[in-house]
Amino acid sequence: MNWDDLRVFLAVARRESLSAAARGLRIDPATVSRRIARLEEETGAALFAKSPQGYALTEAGARLMGHAVQAEAALLAGQAEVAGQGAQGLSGQIRIGAPDGVANFLLPDVCARILDDNPELEIQIVALPRLFNLSRREADMAVTVSAPTAGRLLVQKVSDYHLTLAATCGYLDRHPPIRSLDDLRGHRMVGYIPDMIFDKELDYLEEIGVDRVKLASNSVSVQYHWVAGGAGLGVLHDFSLPHHPDLCRILPDQTRLTRSFYLVRHQDDARLERLNRFAALLSERLRAEINRKEGLS
């Protein structure tokens, strides 16, 4: 079985699109289609089912996926060993999936500093307000806000972090005072779209007794900009507060919440020293960045 064909197969399986796979591989879609057809002819089975949503793996495709991922892992491990990456710097491409809070306010600085020490690395951050499918290799690793309990995954806790109800000092000067949680009823609330909360750990407002959101988005970044622009009150990450000097905490003794970040990888990657080293470095730097920014807020 040709590795180049398997590489194309993995790209289509992960992106669920011929055109997206072609862009990622930097080849034309017709070549991708020919490679998949050749692989299906060789295996004697249809590997994908096409639908309006894109290309989905068939049962035969899902079985091949596991073997293709193992082949890819073995190839990467071999490349790392030949390159002598034991005590030297890290190199190659690593993709991190993350919810947009950590992707906006923590990972940019952390990854830039890691790259300063490892100039041969290529780091990609995929910021999406949803869970990542590591079995389909949408990312090499993912930062999550809860620990997965199913699947062949390596899960390590990175750090606790905190969130607090906040608004701009300007907003608070223009609106009625907030002396208790009951006073929140007279204010415009910013938060998640209720039916698009992809993890129960993100249901912050319910925890402080707010049941109505006037400005809602599935994006932490949009919520942050609403609050920082003086549009209302919202629960913000403490590590995001230093990014806007006019933000003030509201009733911190009653509205401060504690959550945790986890770093999640596929179990098959435990053999890859390169990813092991990067995961350890990323966890250490994330933990330090959370402590630093929470100390500034």
From TrEMBL:
Any GO MF annotation of the entry: sequence-specific DNA binding
GO BP, sorted A to Z: DNA-templated transcription
InterPro entries referenced in this protein's UniProt entry, alphabetically: LysR-type_TF_proteobact-type, LysR_HTH_N, LysR_subst-bd, WH-like_DNA-bd_sf, WH_DNA-bd_sf
Keyword flag DNA-binding: yes
Domain named HTH lysR-type: residues: 1-58
Keyword line: DNA-binding, Transcription, Transcription regulation
Record-linked PROSITE patterns: HTH_LYSR
Pfam family, one: HTH_1
Cross-referenced PANTHER family: HTH-TYPE TRANSCRIPTIONAL REGULATOR, TRANSCRIPTIONAL REGULATORY PROTEIN
UniProt family annotation: Belongs to the LysR transcriptional regulatory family.
Protein name: HTH-type transcriptional regulator DmlR
